[in-house]
């Protein structure tokens, strides 16, 4: 009970902090960084549900991100509707696309699944690049945003992140969550316990794709320009989300958000201070973190807490 | 109608026939032993029953219903639980979470699953390790966890694959006591075991197989005295 209270208070504190940040930080550039962090936190949290909890490492989440972004963009391009409708359409399109993708790719396990997803992301990029009549191809889609106030984007994004975190939290802390982790730990053992593994993997993929699509649609609205090489990018979306989650802590509630904050902040910091050496230094730093904090930042904190608790328990004559 | 019946089940891996035309029945409430030398097809039989392998030919019936056409995860749902010879703990989950993963088959509620898991953990004498991660457990406890997890799915028929292998005599005595306790709760058990002493003690009936074929079946003492069985275990000179 005590620990639950503490967790609850921490969450409340975090929400208050996030809501109050723009009172202190008003410069557009700094708000821009915060909005990017939010977008990546949403993608990371979504990826974490499938990759972290269910253990199905996807190298192709750019597919869902791009589908979300293009749903919003194409809606404006072809139907002259506000791209904000894309916020509704994008996640649905991404989730709908995830259905057949899951049915095909979940026939594969482990590294083969990861590779199939990687190929998938690339297929989407190439298709959107070459269907020039429909997607504008490499020219991309440029929209005139109706709202330019960054504060608005910050709070909208924050609301979406809160929704994503809440949905993930509810899924993970239900029967589904236990089943997903069981599948990650041993698929055969899970089957022997009567868990229909393919069904539950799909139950992780659908919300994961849905919220990644949401982030994509929001990105279209915020940045106002997309092309296939940006939103379906292998390294800058699919691989980056994995790094974000690993940095923050795989299979933890707050890990992806923490990871996104550190990743984006450090990336920007190095870019402005180190000039062209920034990618190199940044890469080395990521390697170091993965080597010395293999459970990510939130993961290591959890471990520390558990260790101290066990010590306390053994002192009081427990184990 | 028997409680459980395997009718002429056969499994071929390419040119190799691992299990050949094997038939047996198990009655409700008995402990049915399956023995045989290494590579004789015992575990393959379990994998066929639990649908991890599709049958090449033959039929399997449980409580009168044909089950060899069901998908693997439904086998557990209809009441057949299993353990693995090479234990498969859910490593980064605690003991209670492992057992809860089994309990969720019959309930969707976390508190109910936890309650059920606690009961089963007590029943299996794992109470001291409730919150330990499964990867930190020694082998005897992992084997017991394997049984606990299967029990949480409320099986009517439990398939135990070499539960005593790798245990010292004292540990295996504890394991046998646990198996008897499980039977006393009304669960029917099919057990594979290498150690003859264990099998002679707890089985009501024994099926001996070699090269995937039945070589003897009956009361433990009868099976142990069958020349075919002695030959399979000790060589031609002793038969």
TrEMBL record, chain A:
InterPro entries: ABC_transp_permease (IPR001851), LivM-like (IPR043428). It is a multi-pass membrane protein. Keywords: Cell membrane, Membrane, Transmembrane, Transmembrane helix. It is found in: Cell membrane. GO terms for cellular component: plasma membrane. It comes from the Bacteria. One of its GO terms (molecular function) is branched-chain amino acid transmembrane transporter activity. Its main location: membrane. The chain crosses the membrane at residues 7-25, 31-50, 57-78, 84-106, 113-132, 152-172, 203-225, 237-266, 278-297. PANTHER family: HIGH-AFFINITY BRANCHED-CHAIN AMINO ACID TRANSPORT PROTEIN BRAE (PTHR30482:SF10), HIGH-AFFINITY BRANCHED-CHAIN AMINO ACID TRANSPORT SYSTEM PERMEASE (PTHR30482). This is High-affinity branched-chain amino acid transport system permease protein LivH. It comes from Pelotomaculum propionicicum.
TrEMBL record, chain B:
Keywords: ATP-binding, Hydrolase, Nucleotide-binding, Transport. GO terms for cellular component: plasma membrane. The keyword Transport applies. Residues 4-236 form the ABC transporter domain. The keyword Secreted does not apply. Its EC number is 3.6.3.-. SUPFAM superfamilies: P-loop containing nucleoside triphosphate hydrolases (SSF52540). It holds the Pfam family ABC_tran. It comes from the Bacteria. PROSITE patterns: ABC_TRANSPORTER_2 (PS50893). GO terms for biological process: D-alanine transmembrane transport; L-alanine transport; L-isoleucine import across plasma membrane; L-valine import across plasma membrane. GO terms for molecular function: ATP binding; ATP hydrolysis activity; L-isoleucine transmembrane transporter activity; L-phenylalanine transmembrane transporter activity; L-valine transmembrane transporter activity. This is Lipopolysaccharide export system ATP-binding protein LptB.
């Amino acid at each position: 009970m005590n620990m639950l209270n503490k967790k609850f208070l921490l969450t409340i504190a975090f929400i208050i902090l996030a809501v109050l940040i723009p009172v202190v930080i008003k410069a557009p550039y700094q708000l821009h960084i915060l909005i990017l962090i939010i977008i990546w936190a949403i993608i990371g949290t979504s990826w974490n549900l499938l990759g972290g909890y269910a253990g199905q490492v996807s190298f192709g989440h750019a597919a869902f991100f791009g589908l979300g972004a293009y749903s919003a963009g194409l809606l404006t391009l072809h139907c002259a509707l506000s791209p904000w409708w894309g916020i509704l359409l994008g996640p649905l399109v991404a989730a709908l696309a995830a259905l057949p993708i899951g049915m095909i790719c979940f026939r594969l396990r482990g590294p083969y699944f990861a590779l199939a997803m990687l190929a998938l992301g690339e297929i989407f990029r190439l298709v959107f690049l070459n269907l020039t009549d429909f997607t504008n191809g490499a020219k991309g889609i440029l929209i005139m945003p109706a709202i330019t106030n960054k504060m608005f984007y910050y709070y909208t994004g924050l609301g979406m992140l809160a929704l994503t975190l809440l949905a993930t939290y509810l899924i993970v802390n239900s029967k589904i969550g236990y089943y997903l982790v069981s599948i990650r730990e041993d698929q055969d053992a899970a089957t022997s316990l009567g868990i229909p593994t393919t069904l539950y993997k799909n139950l992780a993929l659908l919300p994961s794709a849905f919220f990644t699509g949401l982030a994509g649609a929001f990105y279209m609205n915020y940045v106002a320009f997309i092309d296939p090489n940006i939103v379906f990018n292998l390294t800058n979306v699919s691989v980056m989300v994995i790094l974000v989650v690993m940095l923050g802590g795989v299979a933890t509630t707050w890990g992806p958000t923490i990871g996104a904050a550190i990743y984006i902040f450090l990336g920007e910091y190095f870019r402005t201070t180190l000039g062209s050496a920034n990618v190199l230094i940044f890469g080395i730093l990521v390697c170091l973190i993965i080597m010395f904090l293999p459970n990510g930042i939130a993961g290591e904190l959890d471990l520390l807490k558990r260790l101290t608790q066990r010590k306390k328990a053994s002192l009081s004559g427990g184990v | 109608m028997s409680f459980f019946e395997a009718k002429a089940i056969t499994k071929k891996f390419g040119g190799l026939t691992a299990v050949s035309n094997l038939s047996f029945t198990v009655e409700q409430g008995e402990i049915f032993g399956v023995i045989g030398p290494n590579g004789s097809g015992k575990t393959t039989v379990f994998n066929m029953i639990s649908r991890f392998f599709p049958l090449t030919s033959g039929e399997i019936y449980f409580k009168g219903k044909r089950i060899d056409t069901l998908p693997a995860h439904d086998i557990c749902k209809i009441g057949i639980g299993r353990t693995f010879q090479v234990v498969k703990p859910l490593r980064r989950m605690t003991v209670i979470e492992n057992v809860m993963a089994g309990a969720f088959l019959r309930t969707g509620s976390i508190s109910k699953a936890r309650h059920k898991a606690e009961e089963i953990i007590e029943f299996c004498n794992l109470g001291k390790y409730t919150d330990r991660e499964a990867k930190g457990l020694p082998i005897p406890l992992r084997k017991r966890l394997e049984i606990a997890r299967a029990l949480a799915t409320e099986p009517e028929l439990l398939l135990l694959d070499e539960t005593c292998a790798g245990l010292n005599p004292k540990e295996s005595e504890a394991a046998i006591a646990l198996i008897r306790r499980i039977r006393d709760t009304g669960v029917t058990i099919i057990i594979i075991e290498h150690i003859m002493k264990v099998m002679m003690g707890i089985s009501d009936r024994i099926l001996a197989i070699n090269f995937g074929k039945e070589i003897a079946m009956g009361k433990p003492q009868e099976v142990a005295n069958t020349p075919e069985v002695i030959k399979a275990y000790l060589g031609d000179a002793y038969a």
